[in-house]
Amino acid sequence: MSKIIEDLNWRYATKKFDPSRKISDTDLEIILEALRLAPSSYGLQPLKYLIIEDKDLRNKLKDQSFNQTQITDASHLIVICAFDEISELFIDEHLENTSKIRSISQESIAGYGNFMKKEILTMDKSKVREWNSKQAYIALGQLLHTCACLRIDATPMEGFNSEEYDRILDLKNEGLHAVLVCPIGYRSEADSNQHLKKVRRSKNYLFEIR
Ligand SMILES: Cc1cc2nc3c(=O)[nH]c(=O)nc-3n(C[C@H](O)[C@H](O)[C@H](O)COP(=O)(O)O)c2cc1C
After folding, report:
1. 191 lines ligand 1 (CB under 6 A)
2. What's the CA gap between 23 and 43, in Å, rounded?
3. Angle at 70 between CA 62 and CA 195, to 5 degrees
4. Edge-to-edge strands of the sheet including 153-154?
5. Is the distance from the beta carbon of residue 158 to the nearest atom of ligand 1 less than 6 Å?
6. For residue range 55-75, what is the model confidence (pLDDT) as tens digits?
7. In Å, how far from its chain's centre is CA 165?
8. pLDDT tens, 96-133?
9. Which residue's alpha carbon is at the smallest distance from atom 6 of ligand 1?
10. What is the CA radius of gyration of the chain?
């Protein structure tokens, strides 16, 4: 079987983590780099990743996550946040970064920049917020696959009160909101979900050649 398929079959949404096992610094670096490398629309990355270590904070967040034990038991807790808006300054920073990293002049990408600004700055505010949030899901996919390659368990989570997360983590002040949560670590032997067969729709249902 292909290594990719093996990795994807190995992973499952972990229900119970082993609280005694911690992810190494080396693996954590790889995971964070995979998040940094996640693609996004125009490459703007309107995201921030919070890695919550503080125990009290984790307990408070668990209370706002239907008491799901993964929040406190996993080795690390990643909260994927998106910006509420995109400002002209934010786009300019991206253009500046591009010109620096690629050693090209800002003038050479000004046309592209203006196109981007015209599209984004005229967008409805709620649409921008939603668009930014969608970028978080792309990062989540990359995170899950990277963890699986490293044989690190993860649970993608939408089951939390995002308004309460925003309040507890003081996200509004930074113009951010919590979109997704992903505890990562090592499965507990007692987690019976690891033995369940994957339930997926058939290829015939999902794929159509036209
Ligand atoms: C966006 C998203 C949100 C999810 N939220 C939760 C959650 O809050 N709690 C949980 O235990 N599982 C959650 N899941 C896990 C799914 O139930 C699980 O991925 C799905 O049933 C497929 O099973 P598998 O991941 O084990 O293959 C979520 C998955 C995704 C992709």
Report:
1. no
2. 29
3. 150
4. 47-52, 76-83, 176-185, 153-154
5. yes
6. 999 999 999 999 999 999 999
7. 15
8. 999 999 999 999 999 999 999 999 999 999 999 999 99
9. 157
10. 19
Domain ranges of the chain: 3-84+129-206
Instruction: Confirm if 9 and 150 have CB atoms less than 8 A apart.
Output: no
Element (H, E) at 80: strand 76-83
Atom 16 of ligand 1, residue of closest alpha carbon: 13
Taking each helix axis as running N to C, give the angle between helix 125-149 and helix 3-10, from 0 to 180 degrees, rounded to the nearest 10.
110
Q: Is 147 in the pocket of ligand 1 (CB under 6 A)?
A: no
DSSP for 102-159? TT--SGGGHHHHHHHHHHHHTS-HHHHHHHHHHHHHHHHHHHHHHHHHTT-EE--B--
The protein residue whose alpha carbon is closest to atom 19 in ligand 1 is 13
Entry pTM: 0.97
Mutate to test the pocket of ligand 1, among 155, 165, 181 (most ligand atoms within 8 A of CB): 155
Q: Ligand 1 in contact with 159 (CB < 6 A)?
A: yes
Pick the CATH number of 3-84+129-206 from 3.50.50.60, 3.40.109.10, 3.40.630.10, 2.40.10.240: 3.40.109.10
How many Å apart are CA 117 and CA 111, to the nearest integer? 10
